[in-house]
Write a structure and sequence with these properties.
The chain has one helix spanning 2-19, and strands at residues 27-40, 48-62, 67-84, 87-107, 113-132. By secondary structure, the chain is mainly β. The protein has one domain (24-132). Strands 1-2-3-4-5 form a five-stranded antiparallel sheet, with no helix packed on it. The relative contact order is 0.16.
């Protein structure tokens, strides 16, 4: 019984010592989104604008205090009206994006931090719909 109490006391002391250390995870989840517009350029047809809604969720692994590597998935939805030689239409396009990024972060001051990334991504068109308007 005495050995059990001593062992329990040692475990509690070690637990309190190790729990006081600040442990930071090397993994971060980064999520962001945006809105805007894009211009569709065709070779022999007029240009037209599409509204853009986008979002990404990334998993970042920090291999040092300032640098890391991130990857994840993103979705970009483009929608809008346009016209060409066939008539007026509504265009909807969904794009799936998978980035591979080098991330960097740091502190400017105690209350201001910066975060940036640089890298490549692969992108695939998941949906591309044209609905032409019919006028009588």
């Amino acid at each position: 019984m005495k050995n059990s109490n001593v062992l329990l006391l040692v475990i509690l002391i070690c637990n309190s010592i190790f729990s006081q250390k600040e442990s930071k995870s090397k993994f971060d989840i980064i999520a962001f989104g945006g809105i805007g517009y894009g211009i569709v350029e065709n070779e022999s047809e007029p240009k037209y604008n599409l509204n853009s809604n986008s979002g990404e969720i990334l998993l970042n692994y920090s291999f040092s205090e300032k640098f890391g590597i991130a990857s994840g998935v993103g979705l970009n939805q483009l929608t809008g009206n346009g016209f060409n030689s066939l008539g007026e239409f509504y265009h909807e396009r969904n794009l799936l994006k998978i980035p591979i990024l080098l991330t960097f972060k740091g502190k400017v001051s105690e209350n201001i931090e910066y975060f940036g990334n640089l890298g490549f991504f692969g992108q695939n068109i998941v949906k591309d719909n044209y609905e032409f308007f019919k006028f009588n």
